[in-house]
Amino acid sequence: MGALAEKTAVNTAHPAGFVARIELDGPIGPAAAEYFDNAMQRASNDGATAVVLRLDTPGGLSESMRQIIASILAAKLPVLGYVAPGGARAASAGAYILYACHIAAMAPATHLGAATPVSLGGSTPMPSPWQGDQPAPSKSTDKASSDKTAPAGGQAANDAESNKVLNDAIAYIRSLAQLRERNPEWAEQAVRGAATLTATEALDKRVIDFVAADTTTLLTQADGRNVRVGTQMLTLKLANLPVRDYTPNWRTRFLAIITNPTIAYVLLLAGVYGLILEAFHPGAFLPGIVGGICLLIGLYALQLLPVDYAGLALMVLGIGLLITEVLVPTAGAVGIGGVISFVIGSIMLFNTGVPGYAVNLGVIAGIAFCAIALLALILRWVMRSRQTQLFSSDVLMLQATGQLLQAVTAGGESWAHVQGERWRVHCEAALPAGARVRVLRRQGLMLWVTPA
């Protein structure tokens, strides 16, 4: 009876239909998670027989990774995880996602693994090397996801927080391995020791189900396999089915653009400087409108990304010091401090332990160079202003000479042309019109003059 019950529990997926293909390229973030959820829903509504999830990712954010895995576990369609094309990888968060798929496959010349977590506040030291049948490598260039971050390597961790993060990640990936009947020991090794495997090695260690050169081969090899979808066992009938690609919609593309750390960084700066220009030139409107929009979009992107708020505070301090240098010139001391604060804050702004979530250093260097050039220009203007000859002052007026426009009697008043201006003058000596005079002093709008 038990064998009969097991046999009747195995249904056959309807052979008619098509296979939906979803592609996750690049870092796993909010845009990728939203795209996957929407594509899965559309594929289900369209009557897809199965979903091929093609992976090529260095890792990403834990929150987005868990959202994708939750969608896979709740899916009513079998999901075939496929690391492709050649040269692709499912590192960090990608390894977790591949373990969650009903079928796991890799193309030749691909690899997966390196899933050690780190904390948001800084890199978590690497735990002790794995002592199983294969020692874990001592170093790894890949990093994986944690709570809003990805894992990274280092030395042994003894603090309680690191152990909690590590044990949670181990339990999570082991549970996925046990659910899909794959190698849980190597899954733990990937987290504990940041181990990686090539496609052939992954097949030998029962981490994946098979190696497939392309999507057609993938569907052919998956054909006839039994997978558990929810509470049912399904026999896959996928050979010769057409493949339909599900691409991101405009909202997902827009979200992917603004959550790129470099784009978010530029939007933030454009917003701040736009509002500053509007403050210095009230009524211009365009800088203020554009700056406000950019600032709001940049702040929205920041709340989705692994931001170090100490870096953000340093950037704000740097911009404030540069503005202070413009308003109150200090021979460059405050301005130089502002540039240094701004550059350090820009480098610290995003947690660089998360794969794919760091600001391009070339952009930071370019903006810093522009700030230094602006500071040098301001200092040059200040120095030139200090060396410029005075054009109007009492000191300059005492050195001036002019010409009488009308004759003047002794002790009387008349008019004179002094420094291009018409002045009322008082003279103790009688002088004819056209005589040259020299200014002695000024009292209000009256000049006391004497023969020059």
From TrEMBL:
Residue ranges occupied by any NfeD1b N-terminal domain in the UniProt entry: 28-124
Cellular-component GO terms for this entry: membrane
Keywords attached to this entry: Membrane, Transmembrane, Transmembrane helix
Alphabetized Gene3D superfamilies for the sequence: 2-enoyl-CoA Hydratase, Chain A, domain 1, Nucleic acid-binding proteins
Topology of this chain in the membrane: Multi-pass membrane protein
Span list, region Disordered: 120-159
Signal peptide positions (record): none
Primary localization: membrane
Subcellular location: Membrane
Domain NfeD integral membrane residue range list: 262-379
PANTHER family linked to this entry: INNER MEMBRANE PROTEIN YBBJ, NODULATION COMPETITIVENESS PROTEIN NFED
Protein name (database record): Nodulation protein NfeD
Organism of derivation: Dyella tabacisoli
